[in-house]
Amino acid sequence: MPRPRKPTSPFRYFNSSPEVIRLVVLMYVRYPLSLRNVEDLLFERGIDICHETVRLWWNRFGPMFAGDIRRQRVSRMRGFRHWRWHLDEVYVKLNGEMVYLRRAVDHQGARELRHQNP
Q: DDE domain spans which residues (predicted)?
């Protein structure tokens, strides 16, 4: 009987730890930084990598991290299926001027108001 194969890690050919790779990619994607800015910030924290390494990791691991985040977000949202909201729309007169008012109301009664001139 053959032994079950262990899933191969996508980080297996890299000398850096997966935590550092995730930090680098998420830092580049989350904040408006250039590749060289990410390189400089990490160098200040004692991680010496090249800006081309940041680009390589972003191209290689970015879609994988995005998929993980998307799956986590979907699994968290499954608990909120009971949430309902509706949209109220009305024209009101403010200071003698007609204003279009939109109001999103969720099932708990919390509101978000938006208005714009017609």
A: 83-110
Q: What is the pLDDT of residue 2?
A: 74
Residue with tokens 């909120």: 80
Rounded to whole angstroms, the Cα distance separating 11 from 18 reads: 6
Cα–Cα distance, 50 to 64 (Å, whole number) = 21
Nearest to 22 by CA among 74, 71, 69: 69
Instruction: Return the H-helix or E-strand segment holding 89.
Output: strand 85-94
Handedness of CA 31, 45, 58, 64 (dihedral sign): negative
Question: Tokens 């978000």 — which residue?
Answer: 112
User: Comparing 46 with 7, which gets the higher pLDDT?
Assistant: 46
Tell me which amino acid residue 20 is: V
Q: Assess contact for 103 and 111: CB atoms under 8 A.
A: yes
Give the separation between CA 21 and CA 59, rounded to whole angstroms. 12
Q: Which of 52, 57, 72, 71 is CA-nearest to residue 27?
A: 57
The answer to whether residues 89 and 101 touch, using CB atoms and an 8 Å cutoff, is yes
